[in-house]
Amino acid sequence: MKTNFLFILKTYWQYGKPFMILSILYVVIVAPVSTLATVLLTQHVTDAVASGYAFDQVMRIIIQFAIVLISTIILSNIYETYGEIARTKIKQKINLDIYKKAYETDYQHFDNPDFYNNYTWAINEFAQKAEEAANIFVNIFQSLAVAVTMFTLIIILGPWIVVMTVAMLVIATFIEMRRNKYYIKRQEEIVPKDRKLDYAHRVSYQREYSADIKSTTLRKFIVDMYNNSANEKVGVMKGFVRPVLSWLFVQNLMALVFNAGIMIYISFSIIVSGTIVGVGKFAGLTAANIQLYNALSGFFNLISQVNNIGMYVEHVMPFFNAQSVIETNASPDGQALKPASDGAFTLELKDVSFGYQNSNFALRNVNFRIKAGERVAIVGENGAGKSTLFKLLLRLYDVNEGQVLVNDAPINTYDIHSLRNKIGVAFQNPNLYALPLADNLKLYGSVEDDKIADIIMDIKMHGTLLKSNADIHTEVTKEFSQDGIIMSEGEAQKVAISRILTKDFGLLLLDEPSSSLDPIAEHELMQQIYASAHSTTSILIAHRLSTVRDADRIYVMDSGSIAEVGNHDELMAAKGKYYEMFTMQSENYLR
Could you tell me if 443 and 420 are in contact, meaning their C-beta atoms sit under 8 angstroms apart? Predict the structure, then answer.
């Protein structure tokens, strides 16, 4: 656990070294001075009153200590004000590191639910936990500084109090550690429930789900998921009530016994043995003991918190330790990776087989070659493996067997970022971002506003702007602005297609890019794509087979394999799978 704590503390130290040094200096100087002044003020004022000092003399004592205490308060306020700014900056940098790590983690890891849980813990809490670790580290110095100051004061007056306090705190720390083990175990069981609660919460308020919720019985499933997960979470919490309460009762009982023992000791020392003389010393000793107890209790509680942080880090370490080959641009043979060349790609798959972890689906012995500039279509039933091929061509995954070749070179010999920058992608369900419309179109690089305006006119998106009284600098969605542009599914697909018209690519991957448009608009848009990228290699996935009739070659996939190959006329003449699907669709149109 100590190693885990040092790991997360090192992260905070990396970006917050000056602030942490300043914090340590602050707590070892200001905190002990403030505590000592408070204790001595109680002792001296009590002695002065008991000894019959004049009122002005008592006030002089109070003013002297008040000056010290006010000074520490001013320093504390300055420290906290500037500390808040420093902490925000440090957390910002830590979060950026987490995002960078997530960006560089191979896509395959996110298929693993356990890894995704660990990733969720890291992305949501790591920066906050790093700050907590830094606070624990600093507060350990504060607790020790205050404890040493009070220890020095008490040891002169009542040494047995120190022994009793330390003994009590050792017992209390053991109890606290036992309680925390239950808390951590409880949290482990709660996290999966919280993920379902969070999902139900998101579906209930996010706009894209609102139509389904209002027009279907989706709300019933979501409410049932929420209630079931909440009830399961409550059940987990109830299961830990008895052990947690038992240890809490023991802890509070021990604290009561300790406080009673201290008071008995002090009373005996004053009344019976006479080892403590004076009301002021009694008051000062009592106050000092409380401060000592709080300081040592805080110290041992911090040690317990170190274990808690360590247990948290134990859960997120799989995320940080995940080995990524693709996104980190690891070379297969140690040679320098090469950039993707300009111009249309030549693609070839040789005996490619691939399967997802914990899934029965697999691509099996896929072979094809696509020449530079060819327009190819891939068709087949849902689940046949069409989208999986796109993921392999984007190198989101590496194949299990065989080779993917780009321009006759293995895909893993290319710099992955250079390669993907030459591949334009338009998916069936594109994501729109709470950014200006122009920025939504610049995902592949800088584009002049004039060119963006021309693209919008070419694909007939200007009507979308007119009805929203917007321009290309207006934000998409209403996430941050009431004036944001709300788009239909078809309009969102037009945005995705606009992105691939902003530059020249070596390869276009089109996965049902216009499925939400009417047939006429879809035909016009596909013609626009091919006209703008006439020399680019393109692969189109489509279920509406009328869109693939003009393809140079059509691959028909079935159960992870290529079942048929040919152009439209050849496949119709063969009267196989393609003929069956095309005929069925044609008959549906004629009805």
Answer: no
Distances (CA, A) of 340 to 11, 105, 348, 352, 411: 35, 22, 15, 22, 10
Classify burial at 98, counting beta carbons within 10 Å of its beta carbon; exposed 0-12, middle 13-18, buried 19 or more. buried
| SS3 label, residue 583 | helix
CATH T-level assignment (fold) for domain 347-428+506-590: Rossmann fold (3.40.50)
**pTM, full prediction:** 0.75
- Which segments of the chain belong to CATH 3.40.50.300? 347-428+506-590
How far is 298 from 369, CA to CA, in rounded Å? 69
Tell me the Cα Rg of the chain. Answer: 35
Query: Where do runs of H (alpha helix) occur along 459-488?
Result: 462-467
**Beta strands per DSSP E along 381-493:** 401-406, 409-410, 423-426
Q: Comparing 218-227, 327-336, 441-450, 499-508, which segment has the lowest mean pLDDT?
A: 327-336
The SS3 assignment for 298 reads helix
Residue from 525, 533, 542 nearest 506 by CA: 533
pLDDT band at 74, cuts 50/70/90? very high
